[in-house]
Amino acid sequence: MKKILLLLLALSSITSYSQTDQEILKKIYSQSLTNGKSYEWLDYLSNQIGGRLSGSLQAELAVQWGKQELEKLGLDKVWLQEVMVPKWVRGAKEYAFIESSKKQTTNVNICALGGSVATNPLGLKAKVIEIQNFEELEKLGEAQINGKIVFYNRPMQEDLISTFNAYGGCVNQRYKGAVEAQKYGAVGVIVRSMTLRLDDLPHTGSMTYDNLPLQKRIPAAAISTNDAELLSASLKLDKDLEFYFKQSCSQFKDVLSYNVIGEITGSEFPKEYMVVGGHLDSWDLGDGSHDDGAGVVQSMEVLRLLKVSGIRPKRSIRVVLFMNEENGLRGGNKYAEEAKRKGENHVFALESDAGGFTPRGFSFDCSDANFNQVLSWKPLFQPYLIHYFEKGGSGADVGPLKTASNVLAGLRPDSQRYFDHHHAASDTFAAVNKRELELGAATMASLVYLFDTYGTNPLSKQSAVKN
Ligand SMILES: [Zn+2]
Prior knowledge:
By secondary structure, the chain is of the alpha/beta class. It has helices spanning 2-15, 19-35, 38-49, 57-72, 134-145, 163-168, 171-182, 225-237, 289-308, 330-341, 368-376, 378-381, 418-421, 434-454; strands at residues 77-89, 95-99, 105-108, 110-112, 124-131, 149-152, 188-192, 220-223, 242-246, 250-264, 269-279, 315-322, 345-351, 359-365, 388-391, 407-413.
């Protein structure tokens, strides 16, 4: 009997949305497009503060700015959550060239990967071995690799429609390339930039040495795609050429930083929490407008849009500006840890961290019962050309909040241009379109509104902790 009741309850929630919902979504979209704040906020964050690498002065300024702006929104609570973050500093601009065996040199564009050690102050020069993957490393072995710079040149796959999948197929070269090459005696690593475009911009990003002792760590840099092509072509003509690079980055002790949190406390179920967020830190080469200034201002805008659309949420809604997604995920982990310690029931969390481009929909990490409920809302989004509702990942920062019964989601904008800018000097305010950014914020606010109105699917609650 209990099962039948639950089933009926579940079905009723699966099939219902109302005309009121349609009207509210219309209001949310029109507020965002005619009276939005997201673009103005992004302008300040990008152009007045700039790139916000964890532990930097700019990251600190961004924290203060985020708190002040949330305070202006008249939320019920705004606070900072302490979190210790790594501090890596790039130092002087990197320098690199290819030197032919006849001693002719050609300058190329590189940047240190985040977390890399510096080269010797005079730089590092060695012969190069080009490879596509770790299997090749193993085949070549120490005999061919010892004393050389390993050049990882596997390009992103062009025929994948989601460029995130293409990125996923390549990024191990950047993340683990140094630690893998070091095993065979490599002295340095150069990685083809993670972009589908051929241009002169190197793209940074995080890397790991695992637990390798300091003295065994080899420097790692990204090279622009044009220069990766040049290096590859040059190697075919002259396998004895040498590559020179110099970088002076360094790793400092962890420093204190913060997640910035604002809350509208729920009127009926204050102990059911819904989170919307993006990450406040960014890489240092651009101003981090797409990654993830866009997600930050869209998340702030969600709470503002709900307010100006006259919605009084039943559940507590938090905006979280996470610190240190790029090179540590300390903020996301800290938020989830604290939520767990306090026994807070997070029913829903949505992250925007895929760029400020035209929204297409969402990916959901949840049970089938919850996913079916979400699918029932899909027609509501049709007028806004939002159609992508698929199961998949959510976002790095909200991922640690996962439970058996909650719903995690990620905004999925069009991804075709994202990796033109990702972690490169071209990730700037000028690359963000105002209306695309605003459509994303409205799309997020609409989903948050629907979860607030209907909650998660009761069927999913059978195995969940009662609140
Ligand atoms: Zn990001």
